[in-house]
Design brief:
two-stranded antiparallel ribbon; 6 helices; alpha/beta
Length: about 190
């Protein structure tokens, strides 16, 4: 099964003083490089990276080797527009599924990607990592689901409404032993970066 990777990295980091989250540094590298590496090391390819805020700067400062940049001109409308842009960019590529990660979650690496990827074996797959019973990322969407997910992805909710509406169909994969699902959203969260 061909599973593509998708990094949602378009956010402007308004609660972080307007710094693009993709360029925040963790272990000496921009967060976007960590996300691309986690997907590739976890068995996904191709890996598309949705950029928005500061996309030219991200392209110049981050090494996106192994990733396909996708610029979302509507990034300010929220995560939903980035998810739609990413799914649109993948539709002609022949992938059977896509595994989605958020750029601001450096505690999620290749081990969680591999685990979620292994649980999604069909074009109608719907898989989500869970952490102590709470759904989180990464998530995997079989290609047959992409059109409906794109239709319901609005604002900052991404696929949340779709996942809620199809909760009985979601395969849940515990990842709390291999990943930490924290977000880098505020100045206080920056202390989690190394």
């Amino acid at each position: 099964m061909a599973v593509a990777g998708l990094v949602l990295a378009a956010g402007g980091g308004r609660r972080l003083g307007g710094r693009p989250k993709a360029l925040l540094r963790h272990r000496g590298r921009p967060l976007v490089e960590h996300a691309v590496s986690a997907l590739r090391s976890g068995g996904c390819g191709p890996v598309h990276v949705v950029l928005g805020a500061g996309s030219e700067r991200v392209g110049a400062e981050a090494d996106l080797t192994g990733g396909v940049p996708v610029v979302n001109p509507d990034w300010a409308q929220g995560m939903g527009s980035s998810l739609r842009a990413g799914l649109d960019s993948l539709t002609a590529g022949g992938a059977d599924a896509v595994l989605v990660v958020l750029v601001d979650q450096p505690g999620i690496g290749a081990a969680a990607v591999r685990r979620v990827r292994a649980a999604g074996g069909a074009r109608d797959a719907l898989v989500s990592a869970v952490y102590g019973g709470e759904r989180g990322h990464p998530v995997l969407f079989g290609a047959d689901r992409w059109p409906e997910i794109a239709r319901t992805a609005v604002g900052d909710r991404g696929a949340r409404a779709y996942l809620r509406a199809h909760a009985a169909e979601v395969t849940l994969v515990e990842c709390g032993d291999v990943a930490e699902p924290y977000d880098i959203d505020t100045a206080a969260d920056l202390s989690r970066l190394e």
